[in-house]
Amino acid sequence: MTELDVRRKRLLYEMGVTVWRSPPSSAGTGQAWARLEREITRCEACELHQGRTQAVPGSGDRQARLLIVGEAPGKTEDARGEPFVGRSGQLLDAMLAAIGLDRTHDVFITNVAKCHPPGDRDPRRGEVQACQGWLEAQIRLLAPACILAVGKVSAETLTGTRDGLGTLRGQWMAWGEATIPLRVTYHPAYLLRYPGEKAAAWEDLLAVKRALQGAVA
Fold it and tell me: Domain Uracil-DNA glycosylase-like, which positions (predicted)?
């Protein structure tokens, strides 16, 4: 068991989660990532593929300890093929920098939906379900130390509830059979509209930072 495994197991124990499995030794291999991303870019499982410029599988460190999951690519992301590269992406970068991280090192960023919904609307339930297998495959390949879900759609998708972000944030949960520690926070785009909520988002980021350091939030 690696040092990271020990830290994650300790965190889960303090959360009251006793079921835990080590990631497979082949997790995160380059060939598996390349194959997965190729399949995502070819996906036509829902109508969103009809209006996309390109699918946006995700970007960052493929051996990252932190996985950030947003909702769906925006217009800028659709054009560039990368997640969180508009104004909300700039804020996300600043948030990560505040806890000593950046998107190219120790962080992988993706979205629940891999294609841009028209009019920048939220992805619909069927569209989320069409992409759910891709997201689950990414999580299994990455086997992160913890997951940060940003935004209501991401939070409800990863927790499997309809409780709403206000109810879900501020606590540790666990994702899937691997019981990966999961935290929920506000989407950067929401914080741009409602900057008064940045203090709450900062609390969530500090909790993630402590988790990555092996401490208990």
Answer: 57-206
